[in-house]
Amino acid sequence: MVLSGDGGDELFGGYETYAAQEKARAWSRIPGVLRHSLLEPAIAGLRPRPEKKGLVNKARRFVEGLGHDERLGHARWRLFAGSALRRELFAPEAFGALTTPVEAHVLALAAEAGARSELDRALYVDLKSYLSDNCLVKIDRMAMACSLEGRVPLLDPELIELAFHLPPELKLHRGRTKPLLKRVAARHVPADCVYRAKQGFSIPIKNWLDHELRPLVDDLLSPDRLRREGVFRVETVERLRREHGAGTANHSHVLWALLVFEDWRARWAV
User: Fold this and answer.
1) How far from chain centre, in Å, is Cα 125?
2) What is the mean pLDDT of each successive set of 10 residues along the chain, which is 270 residues long?
3) Helix (H, G, I), strand (E, B) or coil at 61
4) What residues pair up with 3 in beta bridges, in sequence order?
5) Residue 176 is inside which H or E element, if any?
6) Is residue 200 part of a domain?
7) How much is the pTM?
8) Nearest-CA neighbor of 48 among 249, 221, 184?
9) Quick one: angle between helices 16-27 and 118-126, nearest 10?
């Protein structure tokens, strides 16, 4: 049996998207002409850096998130293929078959969260979606693959109830995530472990797409294949690939999703 810390971020404010939403409120106080005509175009024009995060990559991602539906709140920074890109990406017939707006699930959960603070609504959305549909699924599959029983003590029902009764500033304070949970953890774990920069478990897909995975990209996203299948617009996929390869944009999340879909389709749907 193993213990997992899953739930700590969703209950105690551990994701950078929560801090981004906090910063967005301050950003909105800058005069609109200055934001839209000067600052945001200047940031969007910066070349992505090869490292995982860094100031430039964070600034670009912040501006990209601002371009999505404001009603999504913190989830704007979880979205990579918004309504505008989907309209450009899908072929007309495929786009016409899309019946559910990309924002629908998040907006429904946010409404279900009720009259909570903005941060607690975000936590509720992630508890009911990102945690249950993604994080817990992964830990369960990986643990079971190794004949391990995974347990999540932070998701004890009484602890969940307590977390949602805590003041928001104990979960996010001036851009600092999980302040209360970190203070408690620092009693038992070295401070340099508790307060180090958050990294997550992502892999360097943006670099692999141009190197190790390039043959797979050339095969699965070839113009002939896409044109034959008629699901995605060839010119849009080619533009995404071209911008990503030139280093002027990071389209790794969208390109990776397209790769996975095309591989699934080749294996099971044909």
Assistant:
1) 13
2) 93 95 93 93 90 88 92 93 92 92 93 93 96 94 93 95 96 94 94 86 88 95 95 97 94 96 90
3) helix
4) 151
5) strand 176-177
6) no
7) 0.88
8) 249
9) 150
